[in-house]
Amino acid sequence: MVPHLTTSLTGPLQDLERVVLDRRPQIERWFRARFAEHEVPFYSSVDLRNSGFKLAPVDTNLFPGGFNNLNPDFLPLCVHAAMSAIQKLCPDAQRFVLVPENHTRNLFYLQNVATLKRILESAGLAVRIGSLLPDLAGPTTVETAGGERLLLEPLRRHGNRVGLEGFDPCAVIVNNDLSGGVPAILRGLEQTVVPPLIAGWSTRRKSQHFAAYERVAEDFAELVGIDPWFVNPAFSQCRGVDFAQKAGEDYLAATVEQVLAEVREKYAEHGITEPPFVIVKADAGTYGMGIMTAKSVDDVRNLNRKARNKMAVIKEGQTVSEVIVQEGVYTFEDVDGAVAEPVIYMIDQFVVGGFYRVHNARGKDENLNSPGMEFRPLAFETDCQSPDCAGQPGDPPNRFYTYGVVARLANLAAALEIEEMVARAEEPEALAESA
Amino acid sequence: MVPHLTTSLTGPLQDLERVVLDRRPQIERWFRARFAEHEVPFYSSVDLRNSGFKLAPVDTNLFPGGFNNLNPDFLPLCVHAAMSAIQKLCPDAQRFVLVPENHTRNLFYLQNVATLKRILESAGLAVRIGSLLPDLAGPTTVETAGGERLLLEPLRRHGNRVGLEGFDPCAVIVNNDLSGGVPAILRGLEQTVVPPLIAGWSTRRKSQHFAAYERVAEDFAELVGIDPWFVNPAFSQCRGVDFAQKAGEDYLAATVEQVLAEVREKYAEHGITEPPFVIVKADAGTYGMGIMTAKSVDDVRNLNRKARNKMAVIKEGQTVSEVIVQEGVYTFEDVDGAVAEPVIYMIDQFVVGGFYRVHNARGKDENLNSPGMEFRPLAFETDCQSPDCAGQPGDPPNRFYTYGVVARLANLAAALEIEEMVARAEEPEALAESA
User: Fold this and answer.
1) Which residue ranges of chain A lie beneath pLDDT 70?
2) How many angstroms away from the CA of A4 is the closest CA of chain B?
């Protein structure tokens, strides 16, 4: 079962797929060289949008949930990739503590934690779950959506190490996006922490990711000879917005108009007749909170109270003051009339699988990752590294390979983004030393 | 479908499996450290024997055929592992020429070549087949056992490079065991050649491999706290044998007696009542040629002409003068009454799959890899890296994981063996320089 493209606008995308298939050796060599130069994230997931005329990432998650939604046939791929990641990052490790999100009522998320635990165990590690839940008095067994039992244990600090009762881990794997800031218990640890805490949403900005992505997309487009716009969504950052106080509205409106104009020009250039739209979202947000669609400046002016409140506050009660205005990419993939959005998973430099978020109630220009969103996951039937070059663009293995290539571009952008964040974090010290 | 163990002597092996499962984090860390220190072979396959009381490698192939016998579901594992191997060995490569064996009448072997080609292509390389066949006038299409069409092209030399008409490869992948010596066309190339030519059977010796394996097995046994004999077959080398001229017979008989005595002692120590036996085989041979079984010294004395001829000459007409006398390990795995021998495949440091050679006509103490041998391949149903620790020793995922561990010991031994061969090959130069 593979989604249909419900658009006739497949010309440019089939061209892209053809180019990607034909230039595979150059593309793979290019990735090998880039991933040798930059430290690739331990794991990531990338939300893609496929409009038939454009294929682009719209979100890159460095603390990915949803491993439970992958095709179980490809878990061995996850295991091998995890072995490779561990070999690079902490070859000496034997014991990992996995620090998950605190939302224990989401049984699907717990299933993700159980799946991650199994992957890491199969890679040869002893793995236990260290919870940040403030009211977890002692080891507590919870049941996952799949009916598995999972033991959550309170994470404890001893000097510069964290651990569990009777368990001193060599490394800490974070599966918590740190939206509420980096908890004191995780700061300044002597243990290896992956991903680095600076990649959490208290310091990370979508606009920095997409700025890095833009450079990666330009290099890639030059390599394969395409217009980078086919894989790169236009965007602009907008600071000083206060939805609750209705502040910064003019600036936001001007930014929306600027991005819309840019998209309009590209649509005209490539003969695309759909109406352009943008997505306005919190620059430091995740979980589909603080997100809205705008097809014109009017859509962001004179928001009613409900709409403003929806934009004002995101996960962990954080107030939104910086937003990113990003070109909206239509979702023209469709399963039985329901909109389907592909999500690609990576561990180390390897694409380990993907699935579609299939959602009946939403439109092709809306965000599919929303609070309380009920989607039906549809695991990819094939892996993303076995294109059938004798086949046609659009054949599932070829479509998935192309998805994997674009997702790896986003993964590479994340590597650059983290490097830059680390460099910036070290800057004041460097200045102080030179003073 | 998984073979039954047709022996009640499963005590020691189930203990081994239990130990391997329990100490997985230490074992995997140990492998990570070893494979970081030594250059792991590009690919290999290892023939194992499982006697219920002992699990040991009996042959390690550095130019493995038989990739066509693996479970196609796990080809993505091969692809990821190949990507990892290429990243290490020749990250800059885009075009590989694959140099196969010359036996084009073996349609199953051709299917192996087609499968290897597909794996390397999926890893993102442009791959063509460069044949050493002396009578191949031009590009020739052959059909494989699976009905695929495969283009063989004559390999051509230009200065210090090899290539095909209109194809200048970055690297040469050898799938030819070089039993007849290293062909002039492959010597002194400026291109990367994997595996190194020194790993071919004109320079390689089984006794050197098993000497390296013995050291690896001892380290491993110390790590997990077992008698190394459970994973290590006793052996001794014997030079100056000439089966055709009946020379060296006394020396061979003494060696056989020595190894048999060693095994007898171990059998007594562990309460094993089966009669010990040894395998006598060409030290530089493969393809199951030049191999015989001996349960006593009498079996190697007074060989008749037919038996002597069978031992005297192996693949490519090479004369046998060095043999290895190796402890025979019973094959107590059985599928529908037929003897089954596991073969494990590795690319880079990853176990990518395995299959059983199932053979009706042979005994549990005979070699299953023989010329003209007709076996039925039975692909492993699960991968070798997903043990079920809640399950029992002997459950297929656990048995296969243990097979993968022992196969990786052999792979590590091959890494040491190649290092030592390279060091020895460089010795005369080092001496000349210091003189």
Assistant:
1) 1-14, 286-289, 314-316, 361-374, 428-435
2) 25
Interstrand relation of B333-335 and B4-5 (parallel, antiparallel or unpaired): antiparallel
What are the per-10-residue average pLDDT scores of chain B (435 residues)?
A: 55 76 94 95 95 91 95 92 93 95 90 96 96 94 94 97 97 93 95 95 92 98 95 93 81 94 94 92 73 87 78 73 91 80 95 88 61 70 80 80 96 97 77 48
The confidence score (pLDDT) of residue B11 equals 54
- CA A269, A270, A273, A277: dihedral to nearest 10 degrees? -80
> In this complex, do A92 and B35 lie within 8 Å of one another by their Cβ atoms?
no
Res B315: pLDDT: 66
Domain spans, chain A:
1-62+204-233+331-435, 71-199, 234-328
**pLDDT score, position A434:** 46
Using an 8 Å CB-CB cutoff, list chain A residues near B389: 121
How much is the pLDDT for B425?
85
The amino acid sitting at B247 is A
Please name the residue ranges forming H helices in B54-106.
Answer: 75-89
pTM given for the model: 0.90
Which pLDDT score, from 0 to 100, does residue A435 have? 44
Q: What is the predicted pLDDT for the residue at A428?
A: 63
Instruction: Say if residues B241 and B321 touch (Cβ distance below 8 Å).
Output: yes
| Omega cis (within 30) before B195 | yes
Residues 6+ apart with CB under 8 A from A181: A200, A202
pLDDT of the residue at B320: 79
**Topology of B69-199 in CATH?**
Rossmann fold (3.40.50)
CA dihedral B26, B28, B32, B35 (to 10 degrees): 110
Residue A354 Cα, gap to closest chain B Cα (Å): 14
Interface ipTM above 0.95:
no
Q: Is B367 left (phi over 0), alpha (psi -120 to 50) or beta?
A: beta
Looking at domain A71-199, its CATH class is alpha beta
**What backbone phi and psi angles, to 5 degrees, belong to A235?**
-160, 165
Beta bridge partners of A211: none
Is the C-alpha dihedral spanning B9, B11, B17, B19 positive or negative? negative
Contact B124 A29 (CB under 8 A): yes
Cβ proximity of B98 and B120 under 8 Å: yes
| Chain A interface, Cβ < 8 Å to B | 24-29, 31-33, 35-36, 73-77, 79-81, 83-84, 86-87, 91-95, 121-126, 349-350, 383, 385-387, 389
Cα distance between residue A128 and residue A120, in whole Å: 10
Maximal CA-CA distance, chain B: 65
* Residue B9 pLDDT: 47
In A, minimum Cα distance to B81 occurs at A80
- Which of B35, B84, B121 is the best substitution to test chain A (most A C-beta atoms within 10 A)? B84
Is there a contact between B25 and A87 if contact means CB atoms under 8 Å apart?
no
pLDDT of residue A300: 84
The fold of the A234-328 domain, in CATH, is Dna Ligase; domain 1 (3.30.1490)
- State residue A372's pLDDT score: 46
Interface of B with A (CB under 8 A): 24-29, 31-33, 35-36, 73-77, 79-81, 83-84, 86-87, 91-95, 121-126, 349-350, 383, 385-387, 389
Q: Are A123 and A86 in contact (CB under 8 A)?
A: yes
B387/A36 Cβ within 8 A = no
Give the side-chain half-sphere CA count within 13 A for B160. 6
